[in-house]
Amino acid sequence: MAVAVEDIITRAQIILQDTTGTRWPTAELLNWLNDSYKEIVQARPDLYPVTTPTFTCVAGTRQVAPTGALRMIDVVRNGGGTKRAVRLIDRRILDDQLPSWHSQSGSTEIQHWMFDPRTPREFLVYPPAASGASLEIVYSAVPAPHDTATGNIAIIDSYGNVMLDYILYRAYTKDAEYTANAARAQAHYGAMQNAISSGAASDAAGRPGAQPGLQPTPGQTTVR
Question: Residue 164: in which H helix or E strand, if any?
């Protein structure tokens, strides 16, 4: 069952004992709900993936994700022609085997992609992309803000309570000059962080193919 934005706002007002929106207007709570998306997706980029079936490459090896992307998640396949799958590899493999790979002739069929977490919105492709090359890519983004308290939240339902904790953290921070409210604010922020961490661990353990206690064995790709 989808979680309605209005339900989260109403629950926050009940906990704050401000159902009329006198101290914390509905518009203010809604702004904090929108802010919670940024906090959550920054920690869990996988919670709001966006798929672009026909990302147009620029010529060369370095590509930049579309405006609004937080970080790359995957390059699935070529967008045209044979729709050949694209495999993630370690850039060092190419650097070792083909030191001049950046200067090779361009191609409209990409075989490999590379990612560096230090430049999360960028990725490299091999062979270098030629004009007309396109890819199906997946990246993380922040959901569009809600203008009104209608509709449902944009991320999975189980994170509704996390969003509520963030709203309460911001609301009590507004009155942090009162010692009790400062403590409540920190308690709700801590609850939010713990829930995000627990959710990440649960998702990792429950992913398809996961086996408790086993770690994946790293493999090596040979570039051809």
Answer: helix 160-174
